[in-house]
Amino acid sequence: TPESKPLCAVWWQTLECNQNALVGYENGSIGLISLTDGRCLGSCVINDAVSNLLLCQDNSLDSVSLLINSSGGQQYRLILEQPSTGYLWPPEANNALDDSNKSRLYNLKQMSVDKFYSFKQRIVEGRSGTRRDSQASESPSESSHSDVSNHSVPELLPRLCDTYFAPQYARNRYLFSAYYKPTALLTVHASDVESAPLYVHKLPRNTNTLLLTDRLIFTTNDDLSMVSIISAQLSESPLEGDSEFNPYSLIAQFKLDDESEKILNVYKLTDVTLDKARWSKDDRKENSRTFVLPKTVNDLSIRRIKIDTCVIVTTNSVYKLLVSCSPINKFIKLVNEEWNLERAEYLSIVFSLNLQQLLESCGDLLISNGAFHQGLILYKQAKAHLLKRVLKLAITADCKALLKFVNLCLSSNKVDMSMATKIHIGNLAVMAYTELVLRYGGHLRTVNKREFMNFLYYEEYYDQVLAVNVACQAAHWGVVTLLAKSRGLQPEVVAALSQIIQTSRVPKSYDQDFLLTLSEPSLSQSLLIYPAYCQVILAFIRTHVHHFPVDILKRFVVQLDPTQPSAVPLVSKLFQRTKQASSLDSTLESVDLENSPQTAVVVREFVETFVIVLAALVGKTDDN
Question: Annotated region Disordered: where (predicted)?
Fold first, then answer.
């Protein structure tokens, strides 16, 4: 058709990787041009001028067709390729193999026998495929889509009351859209309009053409002077189409300034920045394995979303539509800077963002920058677990803020927590109080220590053994004494004291607070029960007894008194092994003492230490 003006073209690559061009002309002709040698391989004709050509294919690649739009508004479909039946348009191209066989014989002689046999098989298959197509064309079934006579010419699509059909590619699959103009209803189908719609959208009334992406719908108006961006999520509608267009689904509009300039077409621009950013993020994760709260947006480990935009071709120019700001960055700005949670939620719906994850990330940024109240509010909005909120607050190392929140959680009856969660939170409070006492001195230390002791005395939900060990390691001896007297943790205190004495961090022999804890009278029974711990403590007392002041010596005399009720049974059995047992209990005690040499040694050391302490006390008293 050299005498006709070409109006549109589309590139078609067959499944055998043949590169062809389909060209639509003003007289209604459609030509198939080989891009390899420029030959015209075939043609067909419709009644009106060809205004647009679109390639359509299903997700299984079983069928490739051409959607033809005419200037009169009619649409045609031409089957180009069907691998399952061996069909390829135009059918005459298969028959042309016979005419070209002779010209290729000379070249075939130069090939090996194997290659010649392979080519021969392909020629035979091509002929058999042609015969199958001709047999199918003689089938009496007029509605069969495999009919060659129907394939070789464009099929007029039914004009369903101003319905515009178009192929789309979104959500990682090929789709087929049908736009019903009278009601502005868009239905999206899996393969063709005969299948049930997957999605239904309500669009503005003046929509002319549209481009569907994963999250956005780009439309042009009837005047071809404006491009509208519509949210696919917010524009969803019932199939009946009774609902009105949701004005909140309209995100933005771009109008051409020049009235004479018209939009020719809108093409998808695939977002490839996601693949480029993936490598740098993986490298950053490898370098940072320690969990810390993010301080800036760049520190957040949130997976970026893919946003496909479009290229707009007009009669004068080509425009590229870009996203000026990342939706994630915009979300964080709306929340942390403007505190506009409503707009942030709207943004999350438009771009299918994980609302809870983003709210929690915003809370992380606020917490790390000292805005604890707002950060905790966002954690609650994000429905983060209570223990997770406490742990993130603990990472900031602000013990006062942590303790304030912990006390609020433990004292409130409205907060529903499991027993394990309460214990974990209480343990964090123990460590936070310990840190506060160590960090500040003077009056603040006295206040913090008093609050710590009140917490340990009145609170029930914490690991008491952990509290003893932490207090001993931090040298909070008043706290250790409190736990021994009020919580009945004398065995744990004895074990912790013996471990401290055996380390390089043993307190000085003149440390008054340590000596007060070590000489606590309530530890007597636990000393006798645990011989290994008792021997370490008694050895320390005997070594440093001459450095102890009088008041400490008096406490040791009370603690080590062998006549006290807790020591009398063991001491008496040590000196009266032959005494006849008068009861079952005394018999068992005698047997235990006789069968445990270490117990006898400890009792003997217990009495000897008492005598040494008493002698030291008498000596210092006489000197005074």
Answer: 126-151
- What pLDDT digit, counting tens, does each position of 585-595 carry? 444 444 444 44
Pull the structure tokens for residue 101: 């066989």
Give 239 or 293, the one with higher predicted confidence. 293
Q: 413: buried, middle or exposed (CB in 10 Å: 19+, 13-18, 0-12)? A: exposed
Q: Using CA of residue 402, residue 407, residue 413, residue 418, what is the dihedral sign?
A: positive
- Give CA angle at 523 (431, 623), nearest 5°: 110
Mapping DSSP onto H, E and C, the string for 224-243 reads CCEEEEEECCCCECCCCCCC
Q: Which residues contact 43 (CB under 8 A, 6 or more apart)?
A: 1, 29, 30, 31, 32, 90
C-alpha to C-alpha distance for 156 and 171, rounded to whole angstroms: 29
Greatest Cα-to-Cα distance within the chain, rounded to the nearest angstrom: 134
Q: Is residue 137 part of a domain?
A: yes
Query: For 405-412, what is the mean pLDDT?
Result: 89
Range of the domain at 60: 1-155
> Locate tokens 């061996």: which residue?
86
Q: What is the pLDDT of residues 41-77, one digit of tens each?
A: 999 999 999 999 999 988 887 889 999 999 888 899 9
Of 394, 420, 416, 418, whose CA–CA distance to 406 is shortest?
A: 394
- Report if residue 143 sits inside a domain: yes
Place of tokens 């009792």: 603
DSSP letter string, 505-551: TPPPTT-HHHHHHHT-GGGHHHHHH-HHHHHHHHHHHHHHGGGS-HH
DSSP string covering 331-349, please? HHIIIIIT--HHHHHHHHH
State how far the alpha carbon of 124 is from the alpha carbons of 82, 119, 136, 329, in Å.
18, 9, 18, 62
In a domain, residue 84? The reply is yes
Going by C-alpha positions, the residue among 488, 479, 430 that lies closest to residue 459 is 430
Q: What is the pLDDT of residues 182-201, one digit of tens each?
A: 889 999 998 766 678 999 99
In a domain, 140, yes or no: yes
Three-state SS string over 421-459 comes to HHHHHHHHHHHHHHHHHHHCCHHHHHHHHHHHHHHHHHC
Q: 266-306, pLDDT tens digit by residue?
A: 999 998 876 555 544 554 554 455 678 898 888 888 888 88
User: In this predicted model, what pLDDT tens digit does every residue of 204-230 receive, in sequence order?
Assistant: 999 999 999 999 999 999 999 999 999
Residue 252's identity, in one-letter code, is A
Count: domains in the chain: 1
Query: For residues 517 and 458, what is the distance between their CA atoms, to the nearest angstrom?
Result: 21
Show the DSSP H helices in 110-143 as ranges: 113-137
Which among 378, 296, 391 is positioned nearest to 335, based on CA atoms? 378
Phi, psi of 32 (to 5 degrees): -105, 115
Average pLDDT over residues 372-391: 94
User: Residue 124's pLDDT is what?
Assistant: 37
